[in-house]
């Protein structure tokens, strides 16, 4: 700190052009802060590079070496590009571009010589901070970015001629504070647009739900605690066992895996127009148009590489145009690039309309696979007397019995007849094994069936919103019965605790649960306070995401519409008062304002006159007396101050000046303007006296040890 | 450009003066709002260009925080304009002229700024020089060094007062007009004796007559230092009679171009003053009776500064 307070300009060296050590340190610390925003997503050797560059500059400054030559700078840039090329395997992705920007920002310090260079460095820093928002827009990131931007501004204030660190920070605080309201207004009011052109996107791994299921593959989703989406309900909240979030229907089975048939694939395969499978708009085109939609919910979706949108049962209407598919699922027009909000009304039940793909499509099975399962299905079908209801019940009941086990880490299946292997050999699996087997058995006897992939459950937060995570992913079966699709969930038969309490409640195969998230706070769910803390943090985070990050066009339109409505309500209320009342009120307000502007000053002067200079001085004297420095009998106020001045330390000059100003005010014939100036000076000096007067040793409590020097 | 004597006025110069008169405010008065101009700096233009880029970034990536940062930078720009304007508004400048200025050196103008609120990083500049100052506790001072190449009465240039505080995005500036004139003495030239034939006899003084009390302005060479070291009181040695014959420094006795002659005379005046001599000055159209002391020196140098030498043709011996 002491170096920051040097009286000479600390920013520049003696030649008046080159930057001094203090400013370079400022720039370097700013770089460190910017780097810290990125560090979780960029290669760590960038940090080493930053330190190396700073070390070079330090030595250069210390030893007064010549500046970095063109060769050195070129070598540094080429080295950076090569290292990034190797690390990212080319410059195709967004990650490598961000790395390049960051690297150039760090290397720029090599050739930062004067004020102008320093400003350029700060500017690149601001751009780099913005780019960090591509990684994450959470609350912590926003806070860190705020600190970083404040630091960068502070270095600009230094460059513009701040005297010391305190001065620079005070100015920065003023700037940030004064500009924040304008920023907030602009943020709320500025029109939010759809992307104007496509930009290179962050390579987002498709971590979420997959559109194909092969029983026997590793259960990847239960290993992750990543958030899939969050939901707030308006009105009815479904009970846990009814929270089935439909995402995809998988209607094509090749003997090993269930795959989704997209609308265009279906249209091409079946020779039907595409419009029969997909409808773009805000309302569904299938089922009764006024079909009931008991659930209204607001989804906060995480960005994903696929355009899926979950819905509770069949979607009925949404607040922005989406693609409604004929199988009763919802799809976005394109993948989400950022977290965004979607308001949705849905039925909560499987769709009640026939799939245009037809019943035959939903009973197709490859001819020569899983022979034992087919045999078993045919036997059960005969045993149930060819009654579909009894047949389905008996299949479910069979899964509910030993030796079938529900486990999160089942043995791997690799064969061609995986359903056979599961049903007759391993007999252990999780939702997709059971759903797959169930659907195969239904199709074998001619009942139209499909597997539905989605989520089930979700963690309920104290404020009512639900968080659905990757490990809530689930698969179940829908069968076409009596003019509607009906949900059949074999998992509910074998592991009801999975449905009621979520994947964390499954005892068997626990080691797979959250296996990819060793540091997840969800592991502390059993510890009460830790869980409370986590829930509280997630609530805050949810509000942040919903209010700030999710503030896109719809949210803005809603807010502005609400504001306009409020304004309009006020206006109508005012108009209802009638013209005369309005005129009277307006006149009163105007007159009041006039009186206030004219009168307040006069009132202030009057009060000031009443409590004039003598009054002020008397107050100071009383204050001094309380500190053990009373006036002597018969001593004039000015004499009192003058007597105290020599022993008053820092306050001494102020005491003398105050005494002088007071005497001139009282005795000298002064012009009004001069008098005003003098009065201001008196007030200021009096304040300085109060600030600077040292405590008298031994007079106050705890003052004995510190002396007058300490107090100053 | 450097300081110049008032020259014949071209139309361009007249136009410049006209605008200067309209744009500048008088020195010594608080800077009014009407005469305060705000211009973006190059850095400010860069900043302004950055904002739409960040907004586009925010739109194309649907990124709320990028929107927020872009808007914050914009809001900062607006606030900076206000802060820069407030930093300059109401500042009152005053000039303190240097006591002696020789041509070829620099005039160190004292600049005193006063204002009610504290001000930061004000830059005062004129053609050829710049200085920085802060106003704290109502008062701030700096020195502005201006080169003065020629002797004579010099009209000081218009002062430009500007500030880029607080972020360097905006430059608030004003011109301070005034008609202060500065008398620049000739450049002193110490010349070998041949260049000047002294008229008059020399430095012999009269007999020592006694000591008298020192009066400020007495010739320092006649101080009785021994007396001072013994008694502690300053005394001046008094002589019976003034120097029998005083020294005349004559323009006509010098050789060379007029300015060079004046320079030589200036160097002489300084040397004789230092030596405590009594000297007179003969210039074309002006004669300064012999005298000594500080006042005489100033009078002599002023006369040299104001001297209008005749044309070269008249000089031919």
From TrEMBL, chain A:
Top-rank lineage group of the source organism: Bacteria
Region (Disordered): 690-712
A molecular-function term among this protein's GO annotations: peptidase activity
Transmembrane segments: 28-56, 68-85, 91-110, 117-134, 140-160, 172-190, 569-596
InterPro entries: Bact_TGase-like, Papain-like_cys_pep_sf, TgpA-like_C, TgpA_N, Transglutaminase-like
Any Pfam family the entry gives: DUF4129
Keyword flag Transmembrane helix: yes
SUPFAM superfamilies associated with the record: Cysteine proteinases
SMART domains named among the record's database cross-references: TGc
Keyword Metal-binding carried by entry: no
Location of the Transglutaminase-like domain: 423-492
GO biological process, one term: proteolysis
Keywords (A to Z) from UniProt: Hydrolase, Membrane, Protease, Transmembrane, Transmembrane helix
Protein name: Transglutaminase-like putative cysteine protease
UniProtKB/TrEMBL annotation, chain B:
Ranges that cross the membrane: 36-59, 65-85
UniProt keyword list: Membrane, Transmembrane, Transmembrane helix
Protein's recorded name: Uncharacterized protein (DUF58 family)
Lineage: Bacteria, Pseudomonadati, Pseudomonadota, Gammaproteobacteria, Oceanospirillales
């Amino acid at each position: 700190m002491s170096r920051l307070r040097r009286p000479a300009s600390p920013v520049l060296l003696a030649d008046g052009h080159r930057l001094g050590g203090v400013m370079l340190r400022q720039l370097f610390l700013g770089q460190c802060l910017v780097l810290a925003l990125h560090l979780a997503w960029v290669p760590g050797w960038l940090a080493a590079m930053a330190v190396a560059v700073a070390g070079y500059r330090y030595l250069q400054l210390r030893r007064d070496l010549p500046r970095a030559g063109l060769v050195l700078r070129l070598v540094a840039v080429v080295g950076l590009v090569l290292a990034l090329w190797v690390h990212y395997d080319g410059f195709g992705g967004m990650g490598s571009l961000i790395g390049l920007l960051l690297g150039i920002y760090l290397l720029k310090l090599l050739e930062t010589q004067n004020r102008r260079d320093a400003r350029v460095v700060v500017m690149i820093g601001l751009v780099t901070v913005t780019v960090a928002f591509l990684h994450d827009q959470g609350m912590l990131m926003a806070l860190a970015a705020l600190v970083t931007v404040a630091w960068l501004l502070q270095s600009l204030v230094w460059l513009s001629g701040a005297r010391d660190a305190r001065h620079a920070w005070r100015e920065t605080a003023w700037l940030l504070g004064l500009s924040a309201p304008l920023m907030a207004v602009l943020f709320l009011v500025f029109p939010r647009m759809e992307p104007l052109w496509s930009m290179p996107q962050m390579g987002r791994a498709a971590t979420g739900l997959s559109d194909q299921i092969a029983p026997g593959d590793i259960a990847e989703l239960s290993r992750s605690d990543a958030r899939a989406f969050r939901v707030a309900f308006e009105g009815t909240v479904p009970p846990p066992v009814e929270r089935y979030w439909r995402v995809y229907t998988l209607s094509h089975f090749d003997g090993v895996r269930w795959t989704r048939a997209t609308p265009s694939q279906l249209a091409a395969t079946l020779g039907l127009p595409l419009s029969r499978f997909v409808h773009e708009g805000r309302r569904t085109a299938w089922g009764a148009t006024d079909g009931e939609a008991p659930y209204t919910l607001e989804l906060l979706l995480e960005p994903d590489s696929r355009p899926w949108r979950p819905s509770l049962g069949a979607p009925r209407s949404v607040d922005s145009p989406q693609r409604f598919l004929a199988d009763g699922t919802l799809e976005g027009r394109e993948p989400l690039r950022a977290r965004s909000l979607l308001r949705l009304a849905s039925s909560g039940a499987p769709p009640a309309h026939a799939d245009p793909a037809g019943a035959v499509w939903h009973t197709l099975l490859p001819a020569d696979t899983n022979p034992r399962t087919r045999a078993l299905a045919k036997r059960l079908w005969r045993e149930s007397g060819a009654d579909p209801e009894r047949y389905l019940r008996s299949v479910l009941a069979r899964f509910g019995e030993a030796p079938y086990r529900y486990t999160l880490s089942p043995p791997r299946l690799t064969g061609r007849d995986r359903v056979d292997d599961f049903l007759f050999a391993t007999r252990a699996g999780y939702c997709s094994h059971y759903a797959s087997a169930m659907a195969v058995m239904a199709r074998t006897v001619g009942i139209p069936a499909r597997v539905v992939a989605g989520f089930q459950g979700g963690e309920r937060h104290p404020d009512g919103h639900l968080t659905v995570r990757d490990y809530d992913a689930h698969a179940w079966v829908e069968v076409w019965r009596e003019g509607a699709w009906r949900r059949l969930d074999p998992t509910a038969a074998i592991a009801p605790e999975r449905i009621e309490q979520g994947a964390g409640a499954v005892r068997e195969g626990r080691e797979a649960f959250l296996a990819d998230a060793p540091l997840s706070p969800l592991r502390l769910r059993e510890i009460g306070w830790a869980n409370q803390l986590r829930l509280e943090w997630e609530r805050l985070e949810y509000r942040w995401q919903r209010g700030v990050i999710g503030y896109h066009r719809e949210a803005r339109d809603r807010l502005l519409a609400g504001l306009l409505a409020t304004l309009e309500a006020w206006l109508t209320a005012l108009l209802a008062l009638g013209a005369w009342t309005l005129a009277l009120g307006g006149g009163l307000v105007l007159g009041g304002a006039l009186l206030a502007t004219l009168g307040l000053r006069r009132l202030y002067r009057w009060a000031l006159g009443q409590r004039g200079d003598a009054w002020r001085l008397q107050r100071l004297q009383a204050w001094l007396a309380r500190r053990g420095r009373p006036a002597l009998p018969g001593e004039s106020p000015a004499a009192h101050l003058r007597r105290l001045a020599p022993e008053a330390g820092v306050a001494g000059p102020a005491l003398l000046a105050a005494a002088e100003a007071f005497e001139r005010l009282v005795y000298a014939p002064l012009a009004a303007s001069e008098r005003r100036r003098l009065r201001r000076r008196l007030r200021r000096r009096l304040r300085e006296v109060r600030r600077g007067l040292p405590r008298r040793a031994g007079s106050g409590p705890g003052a004995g040890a510190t002396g007058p020097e300490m107090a100053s | 450009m450097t300081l110049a004597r008032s020259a014949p006025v071209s139309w361009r110069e007249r136009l410049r003066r006209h605008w200067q008169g309209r744009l500048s405010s008088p020195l010594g008065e608080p800077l009014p709002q009407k005469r305060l101009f705000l211009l973006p700096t190059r850095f400010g233009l860069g900043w302004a260009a950055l904002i739409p880029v960040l907004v586009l970034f925010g739109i194309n990536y649907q990124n709320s925080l990028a929107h927020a940062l872009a808007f914050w930078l914009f809001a900062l720009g607006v606030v900076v304009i206000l802060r820069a304007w407030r930093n300059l508004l109401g500042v009152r400048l005053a000039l303190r002229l240097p006591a002696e200025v020789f041509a070829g050196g620099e005039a160190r103008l004292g600049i005193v700024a006063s204002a009610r609120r504290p001000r930061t990083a004000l830059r005062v500049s004129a053609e050829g020089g710049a200085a920085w100052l802060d106003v704290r506790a109502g008062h701030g001072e700096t020195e502005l060094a201006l080169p003065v190449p020629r002797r004579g009465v010099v009209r000081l240039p218009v002062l430009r007062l500007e500030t880029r505080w607080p972020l360097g995005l905006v430059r608030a500036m004003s011109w301070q007009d005034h008609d202060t004139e500065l008398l620049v003495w000739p450049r002193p030239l110490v010349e070998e004796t041949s260049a000047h034939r002294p008229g008059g006899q020399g430095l012999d003084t009269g007999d020592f007559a006694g000591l008298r009390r020192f009066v400020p302005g007495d010739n320092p060479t006649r101080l009785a230092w021994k007396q001072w070291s013994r008694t502690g009181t300053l005394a001046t040695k008094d002589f019976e009679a003034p120097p029998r014959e005083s020294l005349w420094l004559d323009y006509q006795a010098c050789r060379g171009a007029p300015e060079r002659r004046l320079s030589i005379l200036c160097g002489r005046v300084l040397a004789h003053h230092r030596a405590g001599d009594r000297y007179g000055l003969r210039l074309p159209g002006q004669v300064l009776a012999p005298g000594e002391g500080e006042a005489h020196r100033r009078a002599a140098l002023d006369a040299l500064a104001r001297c209008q030498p005749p044309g070269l043709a008249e000089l031919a011996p």
